[in-house]
Amino acid sequence: MNAAAITQIVAMLSANGESFIQGNAEISSEALGEYYVASRTCLNRWMKLLQLISDEAEETAFELECDPFWSPLQQNLPVLRTLAEQVLLMGMLTRCWTTLLLARDRFRRTQDLEDLARNVYRGHDCVRRLTLNQMEENAYLDMKHILRMEMLRRDSEFCMLDFCGDFMARYCIWDTVGDGNVESLYRRQDVAREEGGWQALHHDALQRMHIYCSEDDHAGVLLDDDCAEMAATILRCFWSGGGELSETEVMVAVSA
Fold first, then answer.
1. According to the model, what pLDDT value does residue 157 have?
2. Is 205 within 8 Å of 213 (Cβ atoms)?
3. DSSP state, residue 135
């Protein structure tokens, strides 16, 4: 799975988010359980890699070569950069999905999904912060990699706002999944009104993320099978909960 697939999934979820938020179908408990397990699998793998990197362990390269999920990825790039790319991109998907789960609870005036949504989001946000700190503190990472990761961080946050800012504002969940600066939400609301609605901003967000979707010269971001499985469980939950997404769209997105 690559960055293009993750970005497209986020775009599909946000474009069809209202159908899920107001859906009458109950989300399969089995699907929610699979989502939780998949998210923990990603989280545990990232934490293990961060520990190896922070310890500057000699066996880091050996462990990655023996890792069936990691070995097919961009081996010519620093481990920390490849890890940061995964964490930042999957963070965009996690924030989008958390937004939809909380908005669904708000619409129904329940708290059925909130504990699960917050638990997963907090874990992934913690790894994101640790990864960014490691990027800043690592003395061996070339500046070009640091600059690219900073650009990806800004772009993914900006695009997340364009994709899900409407739900964050209408269902009052900015404090949970926002970046802490509510002024940025107000500014995008103004732009959305000028452009004729939030949907008009989706195209801009997809264009902004295009640079991370190219596979030439290792520019494209690749994600391991754990990330693909997590994305697949989110789509299954969305679909079972009444989200207007065809089975064909789900299969095409998951197989990308």
1. 84
2. no
3. H
